[in-house]
């Protein structure tokens, strides 16, 4: 469980760096901003659920607030924009992560 908590923390830091850098590296993009958000927040939710399997609602709420904070901070960074559509993509990513979490937990238990 400790390794999943470290993974979760690392992903939080990486997502924050990518989101708050004035010009993020091009090689780390899917090519479409909304799919970047979807993938990032799906990954955050999955790693969070592996770290804290019984905290689904708290993780969802906390990560959605994190996404909202990122969007607000982006309003202050030249070259970046905070968008409601990005927050929506974050929420969809969180929902996908929630749906995939039971399967991931089952697979890891079996292995």
Structure class: mainly alpha
Shape: elongated
- How large, in whole angstroms, is the Cα Rg? 14 Å
Mean pLDDT: 94
Number of continuous helical runs: 4
Largest sheet: none
Relative helix content:
over 70%
Can you tell me about this structure?
The chain has 4 helices and no strands. With about 110 residues, the chain is mainly α. It is elongated and about 45 Å long.
Give short descriptive properties of this protein.
single chain, 111 residues, mainly alpha, 76% helix, elongated
Q: Can I get a quick summary?
A:
The chain is an all-alpha fold and 111 residues long. Helices cover 76% and strands 0% of the residues.
Secondary-structure map with pairings?
Blueprint: H1 2-20, H2 33-51, H3 56-74, H4 84-110
Helix pairs in contact: 1-2, 2-3, 2-4, 3-4
């Amino acid at each position: 469980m400790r390794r999943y908590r470290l993974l979760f923390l690392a992903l939080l830091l990486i997502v924050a760096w990518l989101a708050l850098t004035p010009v993020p590296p091009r090689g780390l993009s899917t090519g479409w901003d909304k799919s970047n958000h979807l993938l990032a927040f799906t990954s955050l939710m999955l790693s969070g659920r592996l770290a804290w399997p019984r905290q689904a609602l708290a993780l969802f709420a906390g990560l959605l607030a994190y996404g909202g904070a990122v969007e607000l901070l982006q309003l202050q960074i030249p070259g970046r924009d905070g968008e409601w559509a990005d927050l929506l993509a974050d929420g969809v990513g969180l929902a996908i992560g929630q749906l995939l979490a039971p399967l991931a937990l089952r697979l890891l238990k079996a292995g």
